[in-house]
Amino acid sequence: MDRMDNFEQVIFGAEPNWTVILTATACGTGALMLFLNWFRHKQSWKKIQRAKARKETSLQRAELAVLQFNESHPETDTSLILSLSLAELSKQLKGGTLTPEAVFHSYVEKTLEVNRRLNCCTEVLLESWDQLEDIGSHKDGLLYGVPVSIKENIGYKGHDSTCGVICKLDLPATGDSVLVEVLKRQGAIPFVKTNVPQSLLSYDCGNPIYGLTLNPHNPQKTPGGSSGGEGALIGGGGSVLGMGSDIGGSIRIPSSFCGICGFKPTANRLSSRGASSCSRGQKSVLSSFGPMARDVDGLALCMQALLCDHMFRLDPTVPPIPFNQQVYQRSKPLRIGYYENDGYAMPSPSMGRALRETKALLESAGHTLVPFSLPRLSYAMHELVLRGFSGDGCATMLSNLKGGPVDPSLRVQIIPYGLPRTVKKILSILIKPIFPRIGASMESLCGASSVQDLWRQHADVEDYMHEVMAEWRRCELDVLLCPMMGPAYNHNYPGKLTSAVSYTIMYNLLNFPAGVVPVSKVTAEDEEELRHYKGNYGDLWDKLYRKAVTGGEGLPVAVQCVALPWQDELCLRFMREVERLFREKKK
User: Fold this and answer.
1) At what angle do helices 451-474 and 502-509 cross, to 10 degrees?
2) pTM (global) more than 0.90
3) Burial of residue 483, with CB atoms counted within 10 A of its CB: 0-12 exposed, 13-18 middle, 19 or more buried
4) How far apart are CA 387 and CA 443, in angstroms?
5) Is 521 in a helix, a strand, or coil?
6) Active-site residue, selected from the candidate residues 250, 271, 428, 441
7) 138 near 186, Cβ under 8 Å?
8) What is the pLDDT of residues 294-305, one digit of tens each?
9) Any catalytic annotation for residue 52?
């Protein structure tokens, strides 16, 4: 009898030995699972190494190209080029005072220098040199010769749009996204992709593929997210114009943390076609694509360039509404609503001071300021925002994180996401009496219990939008001034403080256009006042918040400007007024 016959005799025989059979099966299954897990992690590691190699190759080739250009064009005044605003740069490019080649290589050189300090880039787009050679054919474009950085999730042909998750690696885009196509048609040169947090659903900026991005003003601080690479690059001087996306503050938070201007338009004012996401299909809290720049005029010029017939043809779902320059240029006094504390997350001392100073300047300029508050904010945050985001019980987000490591900046945030629904409910009941806000949030993470429940939740969102707009009309407001999250947090705190996004995510829920303008810097007095910060609830989140923003002296602080849906130009006009008043104050 050979070995196999002996094995069969022992296992099966005349009377099967089920104990032995089950033990052998269990051992075999366990070994198989271990092998499959090892194999998956090995494949993930290889994917990450390939992505890192592509990044390094692109950086090295870009560095060589810059070196060669500088050797053949020693007369290039790089410092002058980098000092120009987008409007002035565009004017000099069109007038021929500056060449696209000189501008392009100046910004690539600066980008390489900033990336060495901050790790804000995921890949230099080497195809941009080919576009540069043919740039003369787009001289009539509004952004002729302007180098533009783009967030990593924005599709560019031949390149990954991973959203920082491993399952999206090695899936290069088969074509340009609509935004990239329109930028190219308008003469802009997309030249680099910038870093994001893993899954995009965080306002930190690190992932297992490309690593951690640092704040340009203080490396101990995060640049924010999810458009954190854009914020860091523009704030560090490596880009004059960038494109980001915003589903909870993802343009506005990094703009605030990095001291630049950022604008979240009304959802679908700009096309999202060809961009990648880890939450596609979620409809309660809407995402928008928008510009990030050093000043408000730069944002407006970008919007004007993108809102053209070419975009409306490429994506017929985008309403064909060109940029209204007349509204943007108006100067009549505005009736402005304002609030300093939304009642959910108490602002830091510097946030509150920045708002009060802005209010005083606006009043002195002849504008009317009216107290305003968002109704039932706690209800909106828990039942509309969190429950809407978690409509599937967080299953989609968690599925995108499979197959690889979870970034340290995201680990704490996702711990409750993976708990069974029953466990979430039990924890909510236990926590609520002690920490009402945290308990309510835990219950909201259960998501919708059925399709009927989800439809009811969508209807509640719609009703709430109209409730807020009715209050807006009652106060006869043109626009709204409110605090903007800041200053920049210490690393790894955003994942522990999702509560703080109430100042930004509400305007994704409401689908109101919103933008940020830097107006001040954290003072020693702000830091001293922060030592006595208690928050609105005095719970764990309030205690963590104080730790998150401490050590911020000298960091930028912004305010947020908001308008009603589709009044994007009015929002930008309000932002420009705030910017003008603070510039005049500094003179």
Assistant:
1) 100
2) yes
3) buried
4) 8
5) strand
6) 250
7) yes
8) 999 999 999 999
9) no
What does the alpha-carbon distance between residue 331 and residue 325 come to, in Å, rounded to a whole number? 12
The catalytically annotated residue of 110, 151, 264, 424 is: 151
Is 250 a catalytic site residue? yes
Clarify whether 226 is annotated catalytic: yes
Torsion over CA: 412, 416, 417, 420 (sign): positive
Distance CA 556, CA 260 (A): 9
* C-alpha torsion sign, points 373, 376, 378, 379: negative
Type and span of the H or E element at 44? helix 18-72
pLDDT of residue 360: 98
> What are the φ/ψ torsions at residue 244 (nearest 5 degrees)?
-130, -175
Tokens of 194: 């910038």
Task: Render pLDDT for 109-146 as a digit per residue (tens, 0 to 9).
Answer: 999 999 999 999 999 999 999 999 999 999 999 999 99
Q: Is 247 annotated as a binding residue?
A: yes
The amino acid that residue 506 corresponds to is M
Residue 23 CA, distance from chain mean position: 50
Q: Is 300 exposed, middle or buried (0-12, 13-18, 19+ CB in 10 A)?
A: buried
Q: Please check whether residue 575 is in contact with residue 517, taking contact to mean a CB–CB distance below 8 angstroms.
A: yes
Q: Quote the pLDDT of residue 404.
A: 86
- Parts of the chain with a pLDDT under 70: 1-30, 33, 35-36, 38
Q: Is 250 annotated as a binding residue?
A: yes
* DSSP code string of 5-26: HHHHHHHTSSS--HHHHHHHHH
Q: Is 434 annotated as a binding residue?
A: no
